[in-house]
Amino acid sequence: MGNANVSNVTIRPEEAEFFSGLARDWWNPKGKMASLHQVNPVRMEFIRKAVDTHWGTDPRGIRPLAGKTALDIGCGAGLVCEPLARLGAEVTGVDASAENVSVAATHAEMVGLDIRYMAGEVASLDIGQCDLVTSVEVIEHVADKRAFLKDVAARLAPGGLLVMSTPNRTVQSRLLLVGAAEAVGYVPKGTHDWNDFITPEEFEDLLAEVGLEVTELRGISFSIGKGLHLSDNEALNYILAAQRIV
To answer: How far apart are CA 81 and CA 70, in angstroms?
Structure first.
């Protein structure tokens, strides 16, 4: 369930090329990226709760990010950027793939959202720091995870909130996310390399190295009754919130 590409330096060239090839199908909820459309509401549920917890905003409010800046790293075609904009944020989306950025910008214009999209490596772009930084299903595609997280942390404004998600490296994820999901076409073949997955413990340690602490972590699970949902089971996939260590 990869969301995008991030850096021409930290991401492998073949990863960027792979997702660029899927760019035109990104907004088709029944196309090759259907899995992203199914998991996106779950991600946004977590992000919304994390925002309300971090800034003390009203859970019933419709624009809790009004007056705040948001950056989505590895934005793909904008599946996270657009709901962040609707929540009131001034949004920037960054992706290594120019094709993804082009599709994202076109779609945002079609639906009347003012989102800044930029192609390239996040460390080399003139973005500044943002109140909310998100990067979902990206770090598993990154070659140098430490360097990537250092770049991510550098973009987080003082008092800011970071949200990231990634598959866990477990027997279950190897069988289901890589084997079964690709075999039945739930995700495009070649989306995942299980060896690049990281565990929550490894992720927390890497974040601590760049001065960030995890404040919330939930699993993303699937069941026939609930479909994809937030849970305490982190075996397949998980999403976390983090802030600077104080």
So the answer is: 8
Burial of 60 (0-12, 13-18, 19+ CB in 10 A): exposed
Q: Which of 60-69, 81-90, 112-121, 167-176 has the lowest mean pLDDT?
A: 167-176
Residue pair 155/129 in contact by the 8 Å Cβ criterion: yes
Cα separation, 71 vs 132, in Å, equals 6
Residue pLDDT, tens place only, 7-23 = 444 555 555 555 444 55
- Residue ranges of E strands in 25-155: 69-73, 90-95, 116-119, 130-136
Report d(CA 203, CA 10) in Å as an integer: 17
Q: Could you tell me the residue ranges of all domains in the chain?
A: 13-244
| Model pTM score | 0.86
CA dist 235 and 246 (Å) reads 30
Residues 35-52: what's their mean pLDDT? Answer: 92
What are 224's two structure tokens?
């026939």
Q: Which CATH architecture has domain 13-244?
A: 3-Layer(aba) Sandwich (3.40)
Alpha-carbon distance of 160 to 129, in angstroms, equals 9
Number of helices (H) and strands (E) in the chain: give both, helices first: 8, 8
pLDDT digits (tens, 9 = 90+) for 83-115: 999 999 999 999 988 889 999 999 999 999 999
**In 97-236, which residue ranges form alpha helices assigned H by DSSP?**
98-110, 145-154, 171-173, 181-183, 200-209
CB 120 within 8 Å of CB 8: yes
β-bridge mates for residue 134, sequence order: 72, 163
Distance CA 203, CA 193 (A): 17
